[in-house]
Backbone:
């Protein structure tokens, strides 16, 4: 069974993270999840539910949550993180992007990304910001050169999405593709 670490930060787009978790459960993918302190606040604002309720709901589906300040978490160690197929930061704020690109580990999200880079574990940084300044672009290039996937959240419209859930499924499906987990959850180009 594939295992993935999902990091949720304080960028807009909590729906993407919620969709990722729902799909991971239905696909029987093991997920360990870290939600940054600011990610918890944005999630509450955007989804209109408390973080505790969100956490409880997904814990019932088997997701394991780690507090963002827990540096004693097993995930902070390369020996444990090596068991995982990949680390995904979705949505990724430009603050977390900057911390990871510059080797700053002030919370467990940053530390897990740092470990993924040093251990060569697939890392997808799904950044959400617009427009991008030169610092953001340089940080993305830096991470891309270190082997991470610099993923800008950018849903397509050629597959005629019906609603925002379809847009989220496209983005999440592309991330599963990058992790080598093949799904049929979104309409690919010229696929009916
Ligand atoms: C409602 C809301 C939406 C936000 N959207 C974004 C965003 O799309 N991208 C971003 O980089 N930061 C966004 N921010 C700012 C981040 O939450 C802020 O920079 C925070 O420090 C990020 O911390 P974290 O990366 O540890 O979660 C938003 C903040 C709020 C309150």
Residues:
């Amino acid at each position: 069974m594939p295992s993935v670490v999902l990091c949720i930060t304080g960028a807009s787009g909590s729906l993407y993270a919620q969709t990722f978790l729902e799909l991971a459960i239905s696909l029987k993918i093991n997920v360990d999840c870290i939600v940054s302190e600011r990610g918890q606040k944005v999630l509450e604002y955007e989804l209109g539910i408390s973080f505790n309720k969100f956490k409880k709901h997904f814990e019932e589906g088997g997701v394991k949550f780690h507090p963002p300040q827990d540096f004693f978490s097993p995930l902070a160690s390369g020996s444990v993180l090596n068991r995982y197929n990949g680390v995904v930061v979705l949505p990724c704020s430009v603050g977390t992007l900057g911390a990871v690109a510059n080797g700053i580990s002030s919370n467990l999200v940053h530390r897990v990304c740092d470990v993924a880079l040093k251990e060569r574990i697939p890392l997808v940084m799904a950044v959400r910001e617009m427009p991008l300044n030169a610092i953001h672009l340089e940080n993305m290039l830096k991470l891309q050169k270190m082997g991470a996937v610099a993923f800008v959240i950018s849903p397509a419209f050629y597959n005629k999405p019906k609603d925002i859930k379809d847009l989220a499924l496209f983005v999440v499906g592309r991330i599963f593709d990058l992790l080598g987990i093949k799904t049929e959850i979104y309409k690919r180009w010229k696929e009916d």
